[in-house]
DNA sequence: CCATATATTCGGTAGACCCGAACTTTATAT
DNA sequence: ATATAAAGTTCGGGTCTACCGAATATATGG
């Protein structure tokens, strides 16, 4: 009874949101383009666009329509909705600086991971490019860190909903193996990703809990495998991460 | 022919978007709450919410509905849509560190300013709280910096659309005075805000132009008036800002 | 200046949105 | 435990509207 269960939907809203997504995908578009891409009449698209422009979700320059900066405000809201999310930002940055690796803070939503903050140690090239992107929890260090803190029945629900697709040949694709791994993660307090999501990328993750004991998210630090010595991977980075997680939980508990 | 001109709108989309805005305003809500707040029947609200949940714009936990992290992805897209926006981030951060003040990067959309990045020099308290917020261009240093780079007829259009409301008794509320001021700003390359938006807050702003010569946005640095000496306000901060704007334009032109 | 393509407006109808009522579930109090 | 209430959810039906297609306006290039 999970996905798209029974009830009714508002067709017009779905159309408008499809236009929004298509505007992102096409990086701005004209009426006709959208009409063709979505198999709608231009007049229909035009009416939807006018509505979205009025509501400030879309801007029109010439005949090209683009998503507006209104989404910045909405994103800012969802990011700061929980105090824990707000303070995670600077810790992620700190992690990236200390380790000189890519550091991220991720949370779980609907059984999947979402990148909330991403910082790179050195050059800020693809600094923000993955913010908001979703990923499979079982493929990453941060994801497994989060899973380790969830009730096992919830983990099983998530596996049933999203499956255990492989990212590389190292990905854990068996449920019982995953569950055993999560026990180990819970024990250690640290999760590892040994080229399980992407070839050549290793990562370490730690969960962070709220004052109610429930997991809020996870930090992780990733690096190209060839720049990551075994000692750094298994000792040094985990230690840094656990330290930051502790600081975070302390600050978070004081509010 | 500007605001809500003639044409038709999609009523259902407007309703869905009102629900989205209301979810932000109420910081999450139940069906009945929304129905009362928007004067709709609970069944109608329920159908809209189901649609939004399916589309991943809203999440449901228990009987409470919240905006989802999907907006992070959309915001990330609009932020990185223009390369200039993407690289402005680290310069804003740098400004905040160098000046130990609050530094922001803003752009213009539909005749108003939008905060795109905001950093505080010291403690990260309300670090992100204004991202995405809109403001009147004539009341701020960054806003006037942007206006100074726009064709004067465009400025007049903007004034006609949004007026010149006062934020404090120092706000420029007369169009011809504003236009004169913009000439001075263009000459100097720097704009000042002498407690014109908020009592007790001074700021300095500089515009940044794209390689096509059109303004992309503006940086500004703000500080409590009593911590800002005349020399810092009129000399030191402007110099820092102009330097950063130059670096920015250089990097931006190489892509 | 004409030809072409696209944006926008507008009439009419098929169909969907909205309400209200019935039903289900969850919470509270006796 | 049971009753009572309140909220969430489903579903039928009527009205309104979202959609299309054609006509008109606007922009582009030959």
UniProtKB/TrEMBL annotation, chains A, B:
GO molecular function, one term: DNA binding
UniProt cross-references to Gene3D superfamilies, sorted A to Z: 3.30.450.40, Winged helix-like DNA-binding domain superfamily/Winged helix DNA-binding domain (1.10.10.10)
Residue ranges of domain IclR-ED in the record: 70-254
UniProt keyword annotations, A-Z: DNA-binding, Transcription, Transcription regulation
GO biological process, one term: negative regulation of DNA-templated transcription
The HTH iclR-type domain, residue ranges: 10-69
InterPro entries assigned: ArsR-like_HTH, GAF-like_dom_sf, HTH_ArsR_DNA-bd_dom, HTH_MetabolicPath_Reg, Tscrpt_reg_IclR_C, Tscrpt_reg_IclR_N, WH-like_DNA-bd_sf, WH_DNA-bd_sf
Protein name per UniProt: ArcR family transcription regulator
Organism: Halorubrum lipolyticum DSM 21995
């Amino acid at each position: 009874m999970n996905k798209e269960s029974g009830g009714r939907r508002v067709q017009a809203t779905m159309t408008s949101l499809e236009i929004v997504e298509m505007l992102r995908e096409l990086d701005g578009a004209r009426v006709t383009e959208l009409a063709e891409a979505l198999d709608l009449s231009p007049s229909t698209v035009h009416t939807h666009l006018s509505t979205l422009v009025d509501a400030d979700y879309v801007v029109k320059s010439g005949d090209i329509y683009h998503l507006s900066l209104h989404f910045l405000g909405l994103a800012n809201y969802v990011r700061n909705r929980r105090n824990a999310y707000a303070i995670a930002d600077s810790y992620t940055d700190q992690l990236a600086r200390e380790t000189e690796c890519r550091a991220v803070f991720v949370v779980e939503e609907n059984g999947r991971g979402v990148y909330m903050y991403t910082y790179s140690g050195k050059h800020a090239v693809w600094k923000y490019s993955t913010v908001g992107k979703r990923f499979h929890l079982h493929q990453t260090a941060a994801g497994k860190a989060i899973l380790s803190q969830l009730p096992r029945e919830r983990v099983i629900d998530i596996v049933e909903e999203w499956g255990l697709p492989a990212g590389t040949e190292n990905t854990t694709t068996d449920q019982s193996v995953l569950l055993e791994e999560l026990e180990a993660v819970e024990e250690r307090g640290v999760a590892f990703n040994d080229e399980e999501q992407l070839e050549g990328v290793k990562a370490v993750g730690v969960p962070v809990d709220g004052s109610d004991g429930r997991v809020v998210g996870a930090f992780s630090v990733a690096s190209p495998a060839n720049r990551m010595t075994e000692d750094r991977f298994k000792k040094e980075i985990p230690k840094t991460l656990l330290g930051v997680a502790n600081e975070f939980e302390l600050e978070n508990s004081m509010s």
